[in-house]
Specification:
single chain, mainly alpha, two-stranded antiparallel ribbon, two-stranded antiparallel sheet, 26 helices, disordered N terminus
């Protein structure tokens, strides 16, 4: 299978204005480095996902580290490492790194394990290595196959921003000393990959927003600084990278033997003991915060203060959550989780509704324009057909991967094949909405998409909590895989990379990551208790609570009015964000101050965070 995949993907990029020679595109050296770095990211994402429910795509980091590796090996390379190879490298790394979320390893599988015995319908919910791999195979591919045909509409024709994908293209172009692919009026000769591009219009929001959310000017200076680095400076950067790795690894090792290091009682022993207010001085979380940016981290801190500083003491004091603070069932941890669930459902549902409404309006406009638009779209594709993924692979792969998913879910959890087929059928249009939201906002609402599927399947399979969780996992996987591929295809589109080669890298990374993630999950499960003090798996608890809620389980005492109040607040926030986005003003008046519109959008409150 891999030989044929590589054979049809192994092409060369055409000459560009910067280089009259052809450059290698699909190479095993790029694939191997992508797999190695993606494996490190996979372990990291699984760790953070089980702890906090948060993972990172890391496309920028993959392109930068990949370039640094080959820069260090430059003296022994017979063929220089080129930008097209870097696109394939980061595509492979991202596919490998994001399997913990796309495969449900940080949410669905722990939630299945947490089901009470009378909720499993006699199904075994703790899987061995082979079964974990089968589960990964069931979820890993149909979203990728479905995402391929979305490229023409969303990337080529509509030129949606996909900020992270655009930012990665800018990063790669600077690293390899190429022109900014988002400059106005620039025409590129794409030779054998296509004809002459019509020029790439500047995005509505600079891609620097995705690189550093603290940069309000949107300048390209961080990229230019990277481009100016000499060989000795690159060596220094690699030493710094190794030193940071050593510091973080040392902390993790010490924390394993001295657990106190993971929960320092900086606020005093009383609040540490009674309210679980502690500090975890983890270098890894510091690095994760740098990647996510200041606005996202700020709203996470606000959420922690509201939940654990206000709601938790109130629930405990009023007797609504009389158990231990950290108890999921009787303590305030479980009580405030319902409020968090209401916030996430409200915001993600409204956000999806806005995207769906815009999609319907756009579709109606295309229908009204009818033949005029069709005639304009005949030559919209800028890539020659030989570098595109053939239709028989796309649709044949979708059919085969769906059938495989049906068979595996029947074998593992006794989910009827027609119910799995319905779950995939529901996941695909939801994935379209998720990809569109990702293209416009850089946020893929996979959690909300999964919850929509859970609501639907509460009616399809009433009382079947296992089937409900599986259906949610299928919807989340489809949206996540399609979204990741679309970000990568945006990068490739801007840098004239072959979609066919990127598809091959995505498939190789996904297959490899199934075994890596299954092994890592099994390793963590044997070393640590899941759920437990080290891995509280909050995402799994959200999935489980949602499954119980839609199947008629009662809510904790007095949580309903509080959850409704917070839900109403966070229904208004995405509506406000949409109105701000439609504003044509460059500046907006907030009280006595005039603030840049881009700043308002960057700092807009996030219920998901």
């Amino acid at each position: 299978m891999f030989d044929r995949l590589v054979l049809f993907a192994r092409r060369h990029v055409a000459p560009t204005p910067h280089d009259v020679n052809s450059e290698p595109q699909f190479t095993w050296r790029a694939i191997i480095v992508g797999l190695l770095f993606g494996t490190v990211l996979c372990f990291s994402n699984l760790w953070f996902g089980l702890q906090s429910g948060w993972i990172s795509m890391m496309s920028l980091q993959a392109s930068l580290v990949g370039f640094a590796v080959f820069k260090a090996l430059e003296g022994v390379l017979s063929v220089p490492f080129g930008p097209a190879e870097n696109v394939i490298l980061q595509t492979t790394a991202v596919a490998t790194a994001t399997m913990p979320l796309a495969g449900g390893f940080v949410g669905i599988l722990p939630a299945l394990k947490m089901l009470d015995k009378d909720e499993t319908n006699g199904v075994r919910t703790v899987l061995n290595f082979g079964e974990l791999c089968a589960w990964g195979v069931a979820l890993a591919f149909f979203g990728v196959f479905f995402g391929v045909p979305l490229r023409r509409q969303m990337v080529v024709k509509e030129k949606l921003r996909f900020p992270s994908g655009t930012a990665t293209a800018q990063m790669i172009s600077v690293l390899h000393k190429r022109d900014d692919p988002t400059d106005d009026g620039r025409e590129e000769t794409v030779g054998s990959v296509g004809s002459v591009d019509n020029g790439l219009r500047r995005r509505e929001r600079r891609a620097d927003d995705a690189i550093s959310e603290e940069s309000e000017s949107g300048s390209n200076e961080p990229h230019e600084d990277i481009a100016k680095l000499g060989d000795s400076e690159w060596a220094t950067k690699l030493i710094a990278l190794g030193g940071s790795f050593a510091i973080s690894g040392t902390y993790a090792l010490l924390a394993h033997f001295f657990p106190l290091l993971t929960a320092l009682p900086v606020f005093g022993s009383y609040v540490s003991r009674e309210w679980a207010w502690n500090l975890m001085p983890s270098p890894s979380y510091a690095g994760q915060g740098i990647i996510m940016g200041l606005p996202t981290c700020t709203w996470m801190v606000v959420g922690a203060c509201v939940g654990w500083g206000i709601l938790s003491p109130v629930a405990k004091h009023e007797g609504w959550a009389p158990g231990d603070v950290l108890d999921w069932k009787t303590g305030s941890r479980g009580w405030i989780l319902w409020v968090s669930l209401a916030v996430m459902i409200a915001e993600s549902t409204v956000s999806l509704g806005i995207v769906a409404t815009n999609e319907v309006v756009a579709l109606a406009g295309r229908i009204r324009r009818g033949r005029n638009e069709s005639s304009e779209d005949v030559d919209v594709e800028t890539v020659d057909a030989q570098f595109l993924v053939p239709g028989w692979i796309t649709w044949g792969g979708l059919a085969v991967s769906t059938a495989v998913c049906m068979g595996i879910m029947k074998a593992l959890f006794n989910v009827p094949v027609y119910d799995t087929l319905l779950a995939v059928g529901l996941a695909l249009p939801l994935a379209v909405l998720g990809v569109r939201a990702l293209g416009e906002t850089d946020l893929n609402p996979v959690s909300g998409i999964g919850k929509v599927s859970q609501v639907v399947f509460a009616g399809v399979m009433p009382g079947n909590l296992v089937g409900n969780l599986v259906a949610g996992g299928i919807a989340e996987a489809g949206a996540q895989q399609a979204g990741d591929l679309m970000q990568d295809l945006k990068t490739g589109h801007l840098l004239n990379a072959s979609p066919r080669a990127q598809f091959a890298g995505q498939m190789i990374g996904s297959v490899f990551s199934i075994f890596v993630t299954a092994g890592a999950y099994l390793l963590y499960s044997r070393v640590y208790e899941i759920p437990g003090e080290q891995f509280p798996v909050p995402t799994a608890q959200v999935w489980l609570d949602m499954a119980r809620l839609v199947n008629g389980h009662p809510l904790p005492e007095h949580v309903t009015p509080v959850a409704i109040a917070f839900a109403v607040l966070f229904v208004a926030l995405p509506i406000g964000a949409a109105l701000v986005g439609r504003s044509t003003s460059v500046h907006m008046k907030i009280g006595p101050w005039m603030v840049q519109k881009s700043t308002v959008q960057r700092w807009w409150p996030s219920g998901i965070a």
